[in-house]
Amino acid sequence: FLYRFLSETNLDQIVVKSDRPLNEVKIMDAVGRLMYQSETQLHSLQLDLTAWEAGVYLIQVNGLSQLLIKQ
Question: Are the C-beta atoms of 4 and 14 separated by less than 8 Å?
Fold first, then answer.
């Protein structure tokens, strides 16, 4: 899977994409608190992070993980 910010000027919106259905998407903050969780059969998901504090987050999709740094 991969994620990207919606645009260089809008760093509060991300898109998570995969070749296969996303199934389960989880995002946790640096201390392990669950910030977002969804189960979906979609291949793409757009998320609004406007209310989230700057920091490091872990995105998990189907058991795979990537770091997200929100500034």
Answer: yes
